[in-house]
Amino acid sequence: LLAEGLVTPTTVAVRNGSAFVPEGQLGRAGVLGGLFTVREISLQGAGILSTVILPGNDFFPEGIALDPVSNDLFVGSIFQGEIVSILDGATRSLPFALEGSVLQRGAVGTRVDANLGLLWVCDTNFGKNIAGGAVVGLDIDDGTQIVRHELPDGSFCNDIIIEADGDLLVAE
Fold first, then answer.
1. Residue 27 main-chain phi, psi, to 5 deg
2. pLDDT tens per residue, range 131-163
3. In sequence order, what DSSP letters do the residues of 101-162 get, joined into one string?
């Protein structure tokens, strides 16, 4: 896939027989537009099927999560603390949680809890100079904050796993 132009992939979500991979092309810094994308890659070997361009030149995607109910994807920005959604079948992203609306730092790990209707997000300090980190639960329908668990200063919430009983495991 690197030969086909996939550059610095970050994470992956699988939907309808395709892998969706956010990528940040920091090597293209200074070039306007198209720096940050989500690539749809065939799991049957047909290569890159489509590209969704993420907003702005400083979005830098980190986490991606699939809502198994709606088939929508959610992509977080490690630098901006924004989250965008990519609706099932869409070719562009839509704002879901804007910078400063619910996340104070940066969106790193993301995970959908379909049972609770929540998008869990690691709100982690990555250049915002706000100590610590938090695990934030956002309403999957409108992005409003439902729950927030602040972590101790010095924490770096990196990723989230949801166990079968609904408990969250947070990787630092």
1. -65, -15
2. 778 999 999 999 999 999 999 888 888 899 999
3. TS-SS-EEEEEEETTTTEEEEEEE-SSS---SEEEEEEETTT--EEEEEEEPTT----EEEE
